[in-house]
Write a structure and sequence with these properties.
By secondary structure, the chain is an alpha+beta fold. Helices cover 33% and strands 25% of the residues. It has two domains: 201 residues, UDP-n-acetylglucosamine1-carboxyvinyl-transferase, Chain, CATH 3.65.10; 206 residues, Enolpyruvate transferase domain (UDP-n-acetylglucosamine1-carboxyvinyl-transferase, Chain, Alpha-beta prism), CATH 3.65.10. A hairpin with a 2-residue loop joins β7 and β8. It binds uridine-diphosphate-N-acetylglucosamine.
């Protein structure tokens, strides 16, 4: 287990680039096995989640070449093997092999996925969709067998616009016979990026980015070149960091529209922002206004940025509130912030943060990926030294985080 040590209080400046999107690439890599030729992917971030997916590909005898941000995947000689706990528990996105292997072979043996403990994280909507396409599912404890002689396109209504279920069902339906329509589909930019990837290989998917996605099944997927979009959550994390500790931090290689809900909230707080076509320059204001935030599905305020924003709200002049509507266990970071001096109250799905408070460095624990990112921001704000234990969570979602933050003036080390 790694630890991140931060000496807080430095003013940050310069440029910080955003890497490729974790939540996009973790769908693209399993989706690549659907290709009947070779796949070439660019702007791939170097993250432990990516390494874990490549390990699964190696186990399935898929050829993988990687160099810096380029990844070539050739699934011609792959074999369909059971993906058991040792692989699937390392990350949530292992479950995209369900849709991909079902589509390719009509047979998947897989254990339930792992991932951050931020809620119950059921997969009932994924399974309901597979069944609607004609699959049968046999469950034995944590292991399941999903199989189908033939997948046939149909209409699937998602009770909740789940990101994972939308992607998994696109993968399952891409080679199914006839037309599939996913109603109440999730609209996140990562879904558009994965649909574009599949279409680049010859799939016929339309409507990605709206709540109605149509998929006409095709028989063959050919070679393609594809680029991963910038990570909007990493971008948002850096913008929040700039709002806390900078006199002009330029966050580059991002798509501002993807974090509009965040930048609007920051403006409400009084944070000066200059938004360019693919960059944002952000500075700390003299005084921060308190705000009320509610997490929602895209384009609402991203749940994945809520814990990072919480660290900034500690500085606001008054009471802020956060309503977490997506995950039921996503305030663990606040108890760690309290150890640093934050004044908080959690009432079910709502948290109150009473500011302004001066944070003081101490030893804290990253309880999940974004909680960890929030604590990095808190550590940079705080006076003195902060030791963040369990930092491996952070490495799952932030490429070269220590190097990137050191380059803009932070005193930070990974141990
Ligand atoms: C993805 C993101 C995660 C983000 C989340 C919401 C990836 C790898 N992870 O997670 O970072 O926080 O979207 O933006 O892309 N649900 C069900 N049944 C299901 C599926 C989901 O009830 O079958 C519920 C979940 O418990 C949760 C909500 O739907 O309350 C959202 O889940 P979902 O959108 O599926 O999130 P993930 O795809 O797991």
């Amino acid at each position: 287990m790694h630890t991140i040590n931060i000496k807080g209080g430095n003013i940050l400046s310069g440029e910080i680039p955003v890497s490729g999107a974790k939540n996009s690439v973790v769908g693209i890599i399993p989706a690549a096995i659907l290709c009947d030729e070779d796949v070439n992917i660019y702007n791939v971030p170097q993250l432990s989640d990516v390494d874990n997916l490549i390990e699964i590909l190696n186990y399935l005898n898929v050829q993988v070449e990687s160099k810096e941000d380029y990844l070539r995947i050739v699934p011609n000689s792959m074999t369909n093997r059971p993906i058991h706990g040792e692989f699937s528990r390392k990350l949530r996105a292992s479950y995209y092999f369900m849709g991909a292997l079902l589509s390719k072979y009509g047979h998947v043996e897989i254990s339930l996925p792992g991932g951050c403990v931020i809620g119950a994280r059921p997969i009932d909507l994924h399974l309901k969709g597979f069944k609607a396409l004609g699959a049968t599912i046999t469950e034995d404890g944590d292991n399941m067998i999903i199989e189908a002689n033939e997948l046939v396109g149909t209409n699937i209504y998602l009770d909740f616009a789940s990101v994972g279920a939308t992607i998994n069902l696109m993968l399952a339906a891409v080679k199914a016979k006839g037309k599939t329509i996913i109603e109440n589909a999730a609209k996140e930019p990562e879904i558009v990026n994965i649909a574009t990837f599949l279409n680049n290989m010859g799939a016929r998917i339309s409507g990605a980015g709206t709540n109605r996605i149509k998929i006409e099944g095709v028989e063959y997927l050919h070679s393609c070149f594809h680029e991963v979009i910038p990570d909007r959550i990493e971008a948002g994390t850096f913008v929040i960091l700039g709002a806390a500790m900078s006199n002009g931090l330029k966050v580059t290689n991002l798509i501002p529209e993807h974090i509009y809900s965040l930048t609007e909230k920051l403006r409400e707080m009084g944070v000066p922002l200059e938004i360019g076509p693919d960059y944002i320059i952000v500075s700390k204001p003299e005084k921060y206004n308190p705000v009320d935030v509610q997490t929602l599905i895209y384009p609402g305020f991203a749940t994945d940025l809520q814990q990072e924003l919480a660290s900034l709200l500690v500085l606001a002049d008054g009471t802020s509130s956060i309503d977490e509507t997506i995950w039921e266990n996503r305030f663990q970071n606040l108890y760690e912030l309290a150890k640093m001096g934050a004044r908080i109250k959690v009432e079910g799905e709502r948290a109150y943060i009473y500011g302004p408070t001066k944070l003081v460095g101490t030893t804290v624990m990253a309880t999940d990926l974004r909680a960890g990112a929030g604590l990095v921001i808190a550590g940079l704000i705080a006076s003195g030294n902060t030791e963040i234990q369990n930092a491996d969570y952070i490495l799952r979602g932030y490429e070269n985080i220590v190097e990137k933050l050191s380059n803009i003036g932070a005193t930070i080390e990974l141990i």
